Amino acid sequence: MTAKLTNNQIAWRAAQDITDGAYVNLGIGFPEKVAQYQPPGREAIFHTENGILNFGEAPPQGEEDWDLINAGKRPVTLKPGASFFHHADSFAMVRGGHLDVAILGAYEVAENGDLANWSTGPKGVPAVGGAMDLVHGAKRVAVITDHVTKDGKPKLVKRCTLPLTGVGCVTRVYTSLAVIDIEGGRFVLREKLPSLSLDALQAATGAELLVSGPVIDLIVPEL
């Protein structure tokens, strides 16, 4: 397998598609990195399920205010105009369709847009949590993920085998090898690493990749 993008580079690529002024929820962990890479001249308004809108980057070490945390229990700062609200109001924003984008991690994504990202089986976490609301409340749902698991198995599959977070909800996947849209129940290849052949990418993918139109070279900065 060819060299692949780092998590920071995947997050950078996903950030380039967030429009100025968009209301955005980032999943806990890896997806939180997307906030670091907003393009110059654009500013997203970040939402967290525990009740903050328009929070900023993490504070310097030693300057944390542990009353200001995101849903992943990580410290954040506040931007001018930030607001606080009840947990129920936060989910009313999600369920009411007021978020433009949700960017989440994944264990599996199926070619029909199904997402499994909360449990790997009986020994996994006990409940799906807010992700279930996010994937059906946000106007656009994207996934950032390594293209394969740690043992080399495809994460992009024909059908998910793990417990589902949502059905038919994902529209774009940013991986360590490619950018892939989900359209008409198919994986549609949009961008791939220039050093990676289409055959090699297909071999690392658990469902057929459809090529309709030009495939752009996936070029990202060193981060």
List the helices and strands and how they pair.
Elements (H helix, E strand, L loop, with lengths): L6 H9 L7 E4 L18 E4 L3 E4 L22 E7 L2 H9 L5 E4 L3 E3 L4 E2 L14 H7 L2 E6 L10 E2 L14 E4 L2 E6 L2 E7 L5 H6 L5 E2 L5 E2 L6
Parallel strand pairs: 1-2, 1-5, 5-8, 6-9, 8-10, 12-13, 12-14
Antiparallel strand pairs: 2-3, 3-4, 6-7, 10-11, 11-12
Helix pairs in contact: 2-3
Describe the structure.
The protein has 223 residues and is of the alpha/beta class. It has a single domain, classed as Glutaconate Coenzyme A-transferase. It is 14% helix and 26% strand. The chain is built from four helices and 14 strands. The protein has helices spanning 7-15, 87-95, 131-137, 198-203; strands at 23-26, 45-48, 52-55, 78-84, 101-104, 108-110, 115-116, 140-145, 156-157, 172-175, 178-183, 186-192, 209-210, 216-217. Strands 1, 2, 3, 4, 5, 8, 10, 11, 12, 13 and 14 form an eleven-stranded mixed sheet that branches. It has a three-stranded mixed sheet with strand order 7-6-9, with no helix packed on it. Strand 6 and strand 7 form a beta hairpin. Helix 2 (87-95) runs parallel beside helix 3. The two termini are 21 Å apart.
Radius of gyration: 17 Å
Kindly identify the CATH topology: Glutaconate Coenzyme A-transferase
**Oligomer description:** single chain
What's the number of structural domains?
1
Name the beta content range. 25-35%
The CATH class assignment is Alpha Beta
Q: Characterize the largest beta sheet: strand count, sense, and whether it forms a barrel.
A: 11 strands, mixed
Mean pLDDT value: 94
Number of distinct beta strands: 14
Termini separation (Å)? 21 Å
The SSE string, one letter per element, is: HEEEEHEEEHEEEEEHEE
> What CATH architecture label applies?
3-Layer(aba) Sandwich
> What is the CATH superfamily classification?
Glutaconate Coenzyme A-transferase
Number of helices: 4
